[in-house]
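Lecture notes, unit on protein representations.

Consider one protein chain, 180 amino acids long.
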Amino acid sequence: MKTLPARVVERRRAAALARHYREREGLSVAQIAQRLGRAPATVRAYLYDPDGSKARRVKEGYRGECSRCGAQTSGCGPGRSRTVCAGCNGRLTTKWDGQRIERALRAWFERYGRQASGADLSLAYARARALRDGGVRLRRLQEGWAEGRWPAASVVRHHYRSVRAANRVALGDHREPGSR
């Protein structure tokens, strides 16, 4: 028997409770919302669309087809579906390709004498650590390299699945001691 996702089980439980409070105890939507700790709009959805099927049908009508690859696209409302899927949009707007990422990782290795890590390339991590390390990581990212800023860790992972794999491709035999 197939196990349902936790969110489905939780919605069913909350919808059953909302129905109980409405039918057996005669509570208003606002009172039910307060008891369940949910917004009144959510409680109304539980009462009038307990399994979410109506909402899914409405959202399905918003979807479109990617003009480049034919994949399904999301939409913002009736007749306002996107013409390009998220994957194609990313490929169209990216300034990072595999060769440029590899050049950046080689430049990192030449400048700092070690492979770049995911934390090294993360702007969010550098900002969070700025008070602890005196802003060293943040300045390193802002200074960049000859071709501009360093690639974000998420971009590297998008192309190579991990920063370690990208370093392996970019550096070949120039690896740090103790790494495989």
